[in-house]
Known about the structure:
By secondary structure, the protein is mainly beta.
Amino acid sequence: YLREVGRTSAHAATVTEERADDGSVTVRATALLDGRPTTREFVLRPGAEHVVVRTRVVPGERRTVVLSVPLDGAPTSLVMDQPGGQVVRPPQRLFTPTFWPVSSWVVMEGGTSPLTVAVEMTRAVAVRDGRTAEVVVARNATKERAWGVVPILACPAKGHEPGPTTAEVVLAWGEGPPWVRGRAAADLLSADPAGRLAAAVAQVLTVGGPEPDGPAPEVDVLALKAADRGEGLVVRLADRTGAGRVRCRLHVCRRLAGAAVCDVRERDLLPLEVRPADDGSQVDVVRDAGIVSVRLVLAQEADR
Length: 304
């Protein structure tokens, strides 16, 4: 059970402002929380429907610190990514509030202006009383106990965090499919793992629709790596709609000796046809699955 014991808005804050050459403005506010200085940075860009929030806090003993965001209407569902796909969860279940583990983003559907929250690492997110979104940005719980007495087996962590804890959260508004909105918000984080992956993928292949003049595929590349079992590269493709269908054409900028659908242990399940192209090879992937792993064997590897 979490109860509020303090908030930065109850104290006077020192506010500074910095302007960057790209037009963005960073507003930095420092105030006391639980008797300790807490800093929040808000990065604003002209015309953007998002704000990047960075926090730095030294949490007190047995304290959980949350970033609180007012909502314009109560969400009816929470759509979030999870390893292996996308899930839809209710705003509350059993506990009040219910903190859900968010892998990288969550879209709070419903209300007047649906909110998208992206986090730089797995964090807990909740909706309190249908009016406020809360993102856990720091914790200093020496040992989780039910009713303060009974140890909780699922929460074995103990000890404390004596130093400052930092967090980065993106708050975004706008319309569109949840997967698209969530990934777009996650790309705005400083770490930008999705951006680095996209740059690496662009050097090897592009993902197009199964028909030359058809619509763009609703498929994302989750990973591109050297195979741990067998030859070649393994690329993981995910259906961003949640419908459990992957339909796309891979344009590889290298000549391929073979391709196959494989499982997560990188065992080949089904060979795929490889067609030559002017600048490399083409492979069509059509599978009824939310995530598909494809092995691509480069011609020079097969010749060794």
